[in-house]
């Protein structure tokens, strides 16, 4: 049932639901009392929700809760056991799976442009008509020119003059470079194929996007670009994501799938958390009140069933039997990462002095200098391959520094969480793996109790590590690290394999940890809750920021916006300077000489063609391709000028014909 079974698809017509009413025009689809089970496991029970045009929705829930099943039901890849699914007639949706593949000899840019089938067909038609114009005359030429004019207008209306630039902008925004545009799509890595699949889907612009973990293979800059793109996206989308910071910046409604049912919350992820906590408190109060009522009623029944009030006791017993029992809001099983007290280090935990890291053939980062004190939490972020994990391994002594120095303080005892999960031995069982870091006097009962906090209950503790899922191995690795009572934690992507509930439990525990933390993470919500300093690996080196992630995010984007404004102002000033330098000095006024209308129009045509050439060159630059607002502004200007050019050509042809008629009349 994983999303790898299905790829990018667009449903051009709805899948009919027998005997169901047609959805109303103000909705895209609706699920009503939908149930779904796989064997004895009931995944969905009575799910009901409606999805409207333009909504930006996040779907959250624990791993295995049924989120991907919801997507498959929406697309028709699965059918419900009970309930109804209604879809708007003609609904177009695009689906992004977590694993995408390409075949054939298409290049990366060709694969992206392939979604514009209609425009490319129009281009072919226009080329054929242009060739035909050179070979026909008379009425046939008029017919071909009229057909060409219609095709050109349709091409402009559908965005033909800007779709190449749009495709390049999306590819660049998702982290590809122009040098990679010629690579064969089939030869791309798995992560690159997923990014290309996402690019195609964004360019396709269906009625609704269905995105399953769209940030999985993106670095921080690409994720931020995608956030900006989606926040301005006019059509609807439904996102499954563990990236809570991403959800905070892209959705205005959250669907929470829990215990087979869906609850809807207005607002972004942070608003959802607040509302959910309020509902939990209300649910818990209602549960406790019902439990008190049940206890009083059962006591009354026991005391009176055989006495004078037998009839009342039986009536109350019937009432209890018919009562729908409420669930406790606190009975959901979540990981408990409570950390044990640690030994105390000196005030200075780690000193980096002009450190250079990398490999003999390639330096990844240099001139790294910082002082990390006891109790501080350093968050390390940046693009893939920039040196984040290499820094951790250099600090741990697994790599030699290329230059500079690093020094640990006194009393430091480090523990390392490896995102590759190499710290767990697959030959052991779960309980044996935890015992490897425990004292010999610790009983199996204590170890089992501790593992229970990490959701390993019952016979789960005797499972071989090799049989665990990625999320289970991640929880086991964290259990080992936390049980070992180190005072400096080095964490490499600790939330990668955890669901949201486990992430939140880990964050709560780390905030109670009395030691020092150094963590590499792409999870910005996690960093926002944990980090007190940020080390950013960017294109221009490593930047240190004293503050949390949100403060860094605001400062970084403010600086970027100011830089873009300065560059735009400088570019505008340079153009004005060039225009002034090339402008012809005003000549002394002379009696106006009437010029032929066709010549005036021809001069204007040349001016517009020149301006279109400049715009085309500008649209193909990487700077404009990365600036979505500027790209759309220039694309609209290009289309406006193209429309005007087409009108001028028609006027020019009419003027030429009039002048030829006047010349012929003069000769006669």
Describe this structure in words.
With 668 residues, the protein is α/β, with parallel strands linked by helices. The chain folds into four domains: 1-116 and 183-267, P-loop containing nucleotide triphosphate hydrolases (Rossmann fold); 273-322; 348-556, Rossmann fold (3-Layer(aba) Sandwich), CATH 3.40.50; 598-668. Helices cover 46% and strands 18% of the residues. It is built from 20 helices and 18 strands. It has helices spanning 67-75, 108-113, 117-133, 138-157, 163-173, 190-204, 220-231, 244-250, 269-304, 310-322, 388-395, 430-435, 444-452, 470-483, 500-512, 524-530, 549-582, 597-619, 622-626, 628-667, and strands at 29-38, 41-51, 56-61, 82-87, 93-96, 208-212, 236-240, 253-258, 261-266, 348-359, 362-373, 377-382, 403-408, 414-417, 488-492, 516-520, 533-538, 541-545. The strands form four sheets. It has a six-stranded mixed sheet, sandwiched between helices. The protein is globular. The model is unreliable at 1-24 and 592-596 (pLDDT under 50).
Brief descriptors of the model:
668 residues; alpha/beta; Rossmann fold; six-stranded mixed sheet; disordered N terminus
Q: What is the CATH C level class of the largest domain, in words? A: Alpha Beta
Mean pLDDT: 83
* Adjacency order of strands in the biggest sheet: 5-6-7-3-8-9
Q: Sum up the overall morphology in one term.
A: globular
Query: How does the helix and strand content classify structurally?
Result: alpha/beta
Strand segment tally: 18
């Amino acid at each position: 049932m994983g999303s790898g079974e299905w790829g990018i698809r667009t449903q051009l017509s709805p899948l009919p639901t027998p005997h169901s009413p047609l959805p109303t025009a103000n909705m895209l689809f609706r699920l009503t009392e939908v149930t779904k089970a796989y064997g004895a496991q009931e995944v969905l029970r009575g799910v009901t929700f409606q999805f409207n045009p333009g909504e930006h929705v996040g779907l959250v829930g624990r791993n295995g809760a049924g989120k991907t099943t919801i997507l498959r039901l929406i697309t028709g890849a699965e059918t419900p056991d009970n309930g109804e699914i209604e879809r708007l007639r003609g609904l177009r949706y695009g689906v992004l799976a977590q694993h995408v593949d390409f075949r054939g000899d298409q290049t990366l840019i060709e694969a992206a442009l392939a979604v514009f089938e209609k425009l490319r067909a129009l281009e072919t038609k226009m080329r054929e008509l242009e060739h035909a114009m050179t070979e026909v005359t008379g009425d046939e030429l008029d017919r071909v020119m009229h057909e060409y004019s219609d095709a050109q207008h349709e091409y402009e209306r559908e965005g033909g003059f800007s779709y190449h630039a749009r495709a390049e902008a999306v590819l660049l925004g998702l982290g590809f470079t122009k040098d990679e545009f010629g690579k064969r799509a089939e030869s791309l890595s798995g992560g690159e194929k997923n990014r290309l699949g996402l690019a195609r889907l964004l360019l396709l612009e269906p009625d609704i996007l269905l995105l399953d973990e769209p940030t999985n293979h993106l670095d921080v800059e690409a994720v931020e670009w995608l956030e900006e793109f989606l926040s301005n996206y006019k059509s609807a989308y439904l996102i499954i994501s563990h990236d809570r910071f991403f959800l905070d910046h892209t959705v205005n409604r959250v669907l929470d799938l829990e215990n087979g049912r869906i609850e809807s919350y207005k607002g972004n992820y942070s608003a959802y958390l607040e509302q959910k906590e309020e509902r939990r408190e209300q649910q818990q109060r209602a549960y406790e009140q019902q439990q008190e009522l049940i206890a009083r009623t059962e006591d009354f029944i026991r005391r009176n069933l055989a006495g004078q009030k037998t009839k009342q006791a039986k009536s109350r017993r019937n009432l209890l039997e018919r009562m729908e029992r409420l669930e406790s809001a606190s009975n959901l099983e979540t990981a408990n990462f409570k950390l044990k007290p640690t030994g105390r280090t000196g005030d200075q935990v780690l000193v980096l002095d002009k450190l250079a890291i990398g490999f003999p053939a390639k330096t990844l980062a240099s001139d790294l200098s910082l002082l990390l004190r006891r109790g501080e939490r350093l968050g390390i972020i940046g693009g893939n391959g920039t040196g984040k994990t290499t820094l951790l391994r250099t600090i741990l002594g697994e790599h030699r520094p290329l230059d500079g120095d690093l020094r640990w303080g006194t009393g430091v005892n480090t523990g390392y969480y490896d995102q590759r999960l190499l710290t767990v031995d697959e030959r052991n069982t779960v309980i044996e793996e935890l015992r490897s870091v425990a004292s010999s006097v610790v009983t199996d009962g204590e170890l089992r109790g501790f593992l229970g906090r990490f959701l390993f209950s019952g016979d789960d503790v005797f499972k071989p590590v090799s049989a665990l899922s990625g999320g289970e191995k991640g929880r086991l690795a964290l259990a080992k690290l936390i049980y070992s009572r180190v005072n400096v934690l080095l964490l490499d992507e600790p939330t990668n394999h955890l669901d949201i509930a486990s992430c939140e439990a880990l964050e709560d525990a780390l905030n109670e940890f009395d030691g020092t933390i150094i963590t590499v993470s792409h999870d910005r919500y996690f960093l926002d809750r944990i980090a007190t300093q940020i080390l950013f690996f960017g294109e221009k080196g490593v930047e240190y920021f004293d503050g949390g992630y949100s403060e860094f995010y605001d400062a970084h984007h403010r600086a970027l916006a100011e830089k873009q404004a300065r560059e735009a102002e400088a570019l505008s000033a340079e153009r004005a300077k060039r225009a002034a330098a090339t402008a012809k000095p005003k000549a002394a006024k002379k009696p106006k000489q009437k010029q032929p209308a066709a010549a005036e129009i021809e001069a204007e045509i040349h001016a517009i063609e020149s301006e279109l050439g400049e715009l085309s060159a500008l649209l193909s630059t990487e700077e404009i391709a990365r600036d979505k607002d500027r790209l759309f502004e220039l694309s609209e200007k290009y289309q406006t000028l193209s429309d005007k050019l087409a009108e001028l050509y028609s006027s020019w042809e009419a003027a030429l014909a009039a002048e030829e008629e006047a010349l012929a009349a003069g000769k006669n």
